[in-house]
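Final paragraph of the annual report: two paired records, presented back to back.
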Amino acid sequence: MRARRQSDYVVVSIHSHEIDGDNLREPASFLVEFAHACIDEGAHAVVGHGPHRVRGIEVYRNRPIFYSLGNFIFQNESVERQPKDFYDKYGLSSEASVADAYFSRSANDTRGLGTYPAIWESVVALWEMENGEMKSMRLHPISLGFGSPPYQRGWPKLTSDLNVLEDLQKLSEPFGTKFCIENGVAVWCPEV
């Protein structure tokens, strides 16, 4: 309530890795309940992140809920420091760099999270509101440079690859949200 009094729009951000069942792509039921409660209390949008993958988008009460937009900037190796136990876990001294620890963890980019191409794709979501309700939404696909060397990857760049848009079409359907892909952009199609 206080946020609504002090702003034109209220956007709630939540970091959540939890899932329902075994599917990383489906948000936990508490996250769906939380997002609905935020909108019910006046939020204009809920933006989720955490599982490093995109999840479906729901339009609830004419307001968007992004259950996960995946990664926007993904540069683990450029973090300056990690706690001592992070280095200990990989048998490294405290003199090692964060990049050394990540390379050890990923066996030089041959295992783990970073080996999945979908981790390195997402969207930039643009939506327009009028009188507190969403009037339009467009999703622009981005790439974070899968397969590039660590010093080149992790920064978002617009891409013409439609995989992430097609993926979001499927993931959003169970929430009743439809997207049409037009000229390399996914457009919210509430009438479809």
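The closing record of the year follows.
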Amino acid sequence: MSTTAFARELPTEEDTLALAELLAAHLRGGDLLVLTGPLGAGKTFLAGALCRACGLEQDEAVTSPTFTLVHEYPTAPPISHADLYRLRSTDEVYDLDLAGKRDEGHLLLVEWGAPHVDALGGDAIELELSVFPRRARIAPSSGRARELLAALQNAGELS
């Protein structure tokens, strides 16, 4: 079965919550989900929705880790949510030991991580968010992304 790109319109917050539920059913500990897109595209909102879909309490805040760089959440699997926007070098990414978190079984959600995929352990699932129109897109650019797309296709989520 061939995999194709996954794209979903996200005109409402409910659509983004539904996408998070769908992704949570197929993502696993050790995965790297890189969230790309312009400011205001909904990267942090999607990260929060994914944390809740993985079991985070509804009243626990999920905020952008822009200044703290990494937030960890007690979900199943545990989630490490990072924002690499302010980092200037790959050495700074290595200092965070996010690849080590993946090795420990964390699902790694990284905003602004596309330039640092290798330092994050490679084999990333890149989910691009756009604003006009508000949409999410995953293209099969890595082995794990192809596996995820195949799982979505098998579940009837792709045409």
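The chain has a mean pLDDT of 93. This concludes the annual technical report; the extension proposal builds directly on these records.
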